[in-house]
Amino acid sequence: MIGSMLDMLAQKTEYTVSEISFAIKQLMETSFGSVRVKGEIFGAKRADSGHWYLSLKDENSLLSAVCWRGVANSLAVKIEDGLEVVATGRITTFNGRSSYQLVIEKLEIAGQGALLKLLEERKQQFLKEGLFDAAHKKKIPYLPQTIGVVTSPTGAVIRDIIHRIRDRFPCRVIVWPTLVQGEGAAEQIAGAIKGFNNLPSDSPYRPDVLIVARGGGSLEDLWPFNEEIVVRAVYNSVIPLISAVGHETDTMLIDYAADVRAPTPTGAAEFAVPVKNEIYNGLLTTDLRMKNAMQRRLNELKQYTEALGRGIPSLEQIVQENQQKIDDRGERLKLAFENLLKDKNNCLKLTNLKPFYIKNIIETKYENLNNLALRLDSVSVESVLKRGFAWVSDSRFQTVCDTNTAKSSQNLHIRFADGIVKARITERSCAIQGDLFDNL
Known about the structure:
There is one protein chain. The protein is built from 14 helices and 14 strands. It is an alpha/beta fold. It has three domains: 2-116, CATH 2.40.50.140; 118-274, Succinyl-CoA synthetase domains (Rossmann fold, 3-Layer(aba) Sandwich), CATH 3.40.50.261; 382-437, no CATH class. The strands form three sheets. The chain has a five-stranded mixed barrel. It has a five-stranded parallel beta sheet with strand order 7-6-8-9-10, with helices on both faces. It has a four-stranded antiparallel beta sheet with strand order 11-12-13-14, with no helix packed on it. Helix 8 links the parallel strand 9 (241-245) and strand 10 (260-261). The protein is elongated and about 190 Å long. It starts with a helix and ends with a strand.
């Protein structure tokens, strides 16, 4: 057909623009009706209509491409710049610009290397933003009443989780069904996480812990759990979240953002709830230890009380000892009175036998009294004044002992043995005023 078209074009000497454009279009679409093109996405842009316009490039060339809205919505790979892909489609021309382009019908990541490179770039970006910080991790509750599970409602994953929870510690499990691979899976997973968190805090359906789970698969199958929308939903979750995606060797970006990463969905159930029998046995052990401790303490207190009892004498003994003390005090008091009476009686007898004894006592006391009177008289004021001394006082009869006080006092009283003379102090002399006072 291509040959006949070329023959037809060769027979004509003149063509219209539409004719040559149509011929080239037929030639391109016939020759490249289905091709697979490997390249890096460049300049991707989504139009308001929902169509995607982009280019595929390698080291030397650039190929324009378009992905219609219906196809773009069903792609398993999200279109973004820098992603190395293999695009399947057909080559056609755009007559309005005399250009050709690839109409994309399928899009795949170009090998594990490209995916791993993109995964590492996203990981570094999220690390810089702090989405994986350990300080942001929340503690998984020990005994949750409700567990929310984000996964596919069919398959072995949800059955394994429910079975494991039922075996360990039965509690309510609420499943939010989502896609776990392919186009739209990331949006549904993120929406489920946000949906659980948006439930009222007093709602009986609000989980205490979330599990996001999926079974094993290729990196392409697990890719929704590396999407930014999912990672940010996990980071922003107020409810503690356990990730359980793939096998133990698979590590997705959701694992870094989650509060706990489980190696398998079954492992996530083990992280979520403890073993009921272990709790029961632990309680029995604790109860036994508590009883033994209480019994030991009671025995110690009993022994201590008995020891105190042995050290305390009996009440009868205490009464008897105090009675003995009273009897002893009474006897001693009786003897004291008798001795006192004997002494007094002896004194009386002695006085009656020797009358001069009292006279001697009185004379002795009188002599002592005279001696004290003489000593007191020798130091009296009158005795001192009679020996030629005088007693100087101010107008208030306060004793003046020095010249400064005398000078500051205008009126002085000078007391002699036979009376008082009043004197007035001037700047240059001392004038005697008035007669003698009567002796005071």
